[in-house]
Protein 1
Amino acid sequence: MGRLSTKHAVLGLMIDRPSYGYNLQQQIANRLGFLGLAESTVYKTLERLEQDGWVEEVGQKQVGGTRRGAPRILYRATPKGVISFKSWMAETSDRAVLRDELQAKLVLSDPGDLPRLLEMAEAQSSECLRELVTLARPSLSDLATTDVEWELAAQYMIDDFKARWLESLVDWLDGICEVMEERIKRATEASL
């Protein structure tokens, strides 16, 4: 994959209720602002979603006080779109987009999605920990004072960056796992 699925993020905002492009822009800014999507992205994405059969037009209304105002088109997710969204929600995220995609999935999820999101987050944390132990990490201060060849020193610095990034990612994943586990536990207890 390699990139966050903008189509699924926009589609997810329409799963529960139909929406206009302008409203979707506002929702993206308010709920998914961390993605940094341009305003024009919504309309391009709506076109692609409609071409794919994932959304459909369900009405229009005139904007402004005159009949010549630009019409706002109301879109809703189709059954095919809902299936695609649910499938995306269940997919494991590619590490390159993990933090953004998992954040988007959390924002767009409902409590029924938590067990799968928890499973994905735990798997990603384990994968990060496995990779972490493979990295060579001499002290950066030692690299400045020893006669290690530059090529090796550069690789050690890259490994140090990767290790710090992986540690940060594991901390975040472990934190959200705790929250999801507690929410699942409380929901299970409430249903008994």
Protein 2
Amino acid sequence: MAEIGGIGPRPPLIRSLMGPLRTPASGLAAQHRRIDAIAQNIANAETTRTPDGGPYQRQVVALSPAPLGDGVRVAGIRQDAREGALVYDPGHPDANASGYVRYPNVDVPAEMVDLMVARRSYEANVTVFQVAKAMLRRALDI
């Protein structure tokens, strides 16, 4: 049994009461990570040279169901393998011998749509968390 602030084991009843909060809390954490990745993608939409060499590669957050059906978890973060646009700009410091520059594979309008979806999902999880918390409070009043 888990301890509560050093005062002994947590009763199973309290663990089961906190169950409804785990699902929206996991959703909040997952959407927060998605928003961070999208912000990083937008910030690097014009980065043609990274420390690893080559243009920035778009980051994608993969989500999967959490064990025991308690919400969702971040399964990993992967790089989008698609190549970015090849633009003719012979004056650019990262231009190849033919004068072309490989830009990141970040589509800013698509990232903005993903950001809006992630934000709405985050807000929905906040609402579910608040409702579950209010229900638990009400149950304790009974």
